[in-house]
Amino acid sequence: MTASFKGKAPSRRAFLKGSIAAGGAVFGASAARAAEPDPLITEVQDWATGLGDGVDATPYGLPIQYESDVIRRNVEWLTADTISSINFTPIHALDGTITPQGCAFERHHSGAIELRKDDYRLMINGLVDTPLIFTYEDLERFPRENHVYFCECAANTGMEWAGAQLNGAQFTHGMIHNMEYTGVPLRTLLNEAGVQTEGKWVYVEGADASSNGRSIPLEKALDDVLVAFKANGEALRKEHGYPVRLVVPGWEGNMWIKWLRRVEVTTQAIESREETSKYTDTLANGTSRKWTWVMDAKSVVTSPSPQSPIKHGHGPLVVTGLAWSGRGAITGVDVSLDGGMNWQPARLAQPGQSKALTRFYLDIEWNGEEMFLQSRARDDTGYVQPSKAQLRDVRGENSIYHNNCIQTWWVKPNGEAENVEVS
Amino acid sequence: AAADARFGLGRPALPEEVAAWDLDVAPDGTGLPVGSGSVEDGEMLFSDNCAVCHGEFAEGVDNWPKLAGGEGTLADKDPLKTVGSYWPYLSTVWDYVHRSMPFGAAQTLSPDEVYAITAYILYSNYLVEDDFVLSNENFLEVEMTNTDGFIVDDREEAEKHFWTAEPCMENCKDSVEITMRAAVLDVTPEEEGAGEE
């Protein structure tokens, strides 16, 4: 693919902006004694004397204007158009684990459709005793569950297979979001229709033109798959499947069917376009893996990173990032400052939850030394996140999907960071 | 409530409703409607409905998907994965075209039209002759190039060395050299938003 963007990388721009804002003088001087009284303190500020907005100013609020760079971003050259395309969560600027829905990534194959609850229908058919139709109101009458899970696109980090390409954690690792879902177990709905003994798979599809049909083994469908209608406390966003989506814990995001309209119990996998042409992983010898459903253990340092350079000078530095595994819970994250020669355990903000994002921190003293920052996740199955070299040894460079390699950020003495590969 | 409790919610689906939505076709032909279409008819239909994105010969326009070509390239540095070179089953072509194409006007093709377009895509991949007529009856006789090119996920075997009891923590390698830099490639979009002039 041809590069179609001009100008400096975002890290450079962000860095320069930061330097200018800080006047250049305070760099490395955070603990210095103030020479003059600070007018932000000694002079009465407008907000301390006048009035703010009334409670009726914003019935449903957006982030304050100063956070307007914390947004989804698109990479134009990745796809033929913006309808069957992807955008990226600004993970470099977020903390904790819950992704705000308004900047949580989108991936559509025929656009984000608008489907009213009144127009919504869910069909269960195929090898069932009674094919059923549910309205949205019907779904709200089944017993509900709440779970936090990550949804990671199978192609997350996919542009990085052949080398370091996109300069920022948002672009290399931002096809992911993590939400608290409310919904009904799929098993409850299947039970209502009565699955027949010949049933071995379910085929699930959306109401949109692409349909995004996928085959799921019945065992998974009856285990933890959720038919969700709320995320992070409120209705799903239109672009995330309003009013109803499938949540398939730990499995590649493509299977999280949005605008879910039909679940068919079958004897066999349908081998749809999204599980043959796409979401199959070609190995070096030309054969391809199919049904690579689980997302393996993975992590990334979100700050410092190319879009989140060090602007505060020397001294205490918070190194932070995210770890997750589709196989279970994160049990630990190791961080290296020297490109993987030596590692130290990071601190998990909360114990790892199964198939959900986990936040980690490493608090260090940084005095301008060059760093090659890496993170390495471990999960409760004993899986250790591999290097890109280890993955390439098994898979070659053309599998597109499922790149869970260790990421390296080169942090330079001036605080800028860059996406690199190291030996 | 017991694990198998039923709640009496929903209503039985009518046969017409199931027929309207259950359109999927499996590799063994399950789900195919009765019908047929020729390469000749398919060429006209493809030209009218598909060629603006996929090219007159299914070779693709700009960044839009190429549907033909690439045979024998799957182990290359840059494989070309098309219906001819990569797709394992013809059922998927029929099913996907019928349900989701043309892009922006999906579900506008009749079964006979889909048979004809599928026949033309086969022809454009040199898999059938120009007088070929595809129907629900001869559908399974068409041989696809890469049917045997897929294996079921074997990560737990092929990658079992990633399940490591104790990863290395100290002195894991002697040196670290930069081997590739994203800034050199320079294909990342510019920042937009706060502070942008």
Automatic annotation (TrEMBL), chain A:
<dbReference type="Pfam" id="PF03404">
    <property type="entry name" value="Mo-co_dimer"/>
</dbReference>
<dbReference type="InterPro" id="IPR008335">
    <property type="entry name" value="Mopterin_OxRdtase_euk"/>
</dbReference>
<dbReference type="GO" id="GO:0008482">
    <property type="term" value="F:sulfite oxidase activity"/>
</dbReference>
<dbReference type="GO" id="GO:0006790">
    <property type="term" value="P:sulfur compound metabolic process"/>
</dbReference>
<dbReference type="InterPro" id="IPR030835">
    <property type="entry name" value="Sulfite_DH_SoxC"/>
</dbReference>
<keyword id="KW-0732">Signal</keyword>
<keyword id="KW-0500">Molybdenum</keyword>
<dbReference type="GO" id="GO:0030151">
    <property type="term" value="F:molybdenum ion binding"/>
</dbReference>
<dbReference type="InterPro" id="IPR000572">
    <property type="entry name" value="OxRdtase_Mopterin-bd_dom"/>
</dbReference>
<dbReference type="GO" id="GO:0020037">
    <property type="term" value="F:heme binding"/>
</dbReference>
<protein>
    <submittedName>
        <fullName>Sulfur dehydrogenase subunit SoxC</fullName>
    </submittedName>
</protein>
<dbReference type="GO" id="GO:0043546">
    <property type="term" value="F:molybdopterin cofactor binding"/>
</dbReference>
<feature type="signal peptide">
    <location>
        <begin position="1"/>
        <end position="34"/>
    </location>
</feature>
<keyword id="KW-0560">Oxidoreductase</keyword>
<dbReference type="Pfam" id="PF00174">
    <property type="entry name" value="Oxidored_molyb"/>
</dbReference>
<dbReference type="InterPro" id="IPR005066">
    <property type="entry name" value="MoCF_OxRdtse_dimer"/>
</dbReference>
<feature type="domain" description="Moybdenum cofactor oxidoreductase dimerisation">
    <location>
        <begin position="289"/>
        <end position="407"/>
    </location>
</feature>
<keyword id="KW-0479">Metal-binding</keyword>
<dbReference type="InterPro" id="IPR006311">
    <property type="entry name" value="TAT_signal"/>
</dbReference>
<dbReference type="InterPro" id="IPR014756">
    <property type="entry name" value="Ig_E-set"/>
</dbReference>
<dbReference type="InterPro" id="IPR036374">
    <property type="entry name" value="OxRdtase_Mopterin-bd_sf"/>
</dbReference>
<feature type="domain" description="Oxidoreductase molybdopterin-binding">
    <location>
        <begin position="115"/>
        <end position="270"/>
    </location>
</feature>
